[in-house]
Amino acid sequence: MRYLDVISKKYDHYLLAAVVLLCIVGTVMLFSASNSISLDQTQRVTATVYLQAHLKRLLVGIAMMFIAMMIDYRNLKIAAKYLLIGSIVLLLITKIKLFTAGQLFPGKVALPRQSFDPDFRHCSAGSDHFSGRIRGSLPRSDQGFL
User: Fold this and answer.
1) Do residues 97 and 114 both lie within one domain?
2) In this structure, what are the phi and psi dihedrals at residue 20, rounded to the nearest 5 degrees?
3) Which of 33, 102, 125, 142 has a Cα-to-Cα distance from 51 of 20 to 30 A?
4) Can you tell me whether residue 96 is helix, strand or coil?
């Protein structure tokens, strides 16, 4: 009977439609951006390596969304203080583990010191004017990015 309550429950239809639309657009964008990379990595066996991984994660996310839709958020007010304290403790544990491993700022990456020279010969926008403008705006290889 609980599942029927979820179906008949009042929820924001526009928000749900926006989430579904974003999932569809994101999946199409991911496949169009990663199919050639997937083909290269699998020696032309399949073009859907990244798409399969994305769809698995998307299904887990959708399942979590429907589970969260079943929970009445007003009942969480009782446990809010404990959830906040638990979140802070987990954050501190993560930072302490990173600090002891010597990775205080793990997201910090250095830029490469070489120039990027795009090759536009294979695309329709590869006119000499367009590619010359881009190549002229990038630093020379002896200058580097930094």
Assistant:
1) no
2) -65, -45
3) 125
4) helix
Claim to verify: residue 67 and residue 6 sit in the same structural domain: yes
Asked whether the whole model's pTM tops 0.70, one would answer no
Torsion of CA 21, 38, 126, 135, to 10 degrees: 100
Structural tokens at position 64: 């979590």
CB-CB contact of 87 with 19 (8 Å): no
**Cα separation, 68 vs 19, whole angstroms:** 14
Number of domains in the chain: 3
Below-70 pLDDT ranges, the chain: 1-9, 103-146
Give domain status of residue 146, yes or no. no
Mean pLDDT of the chain: 77
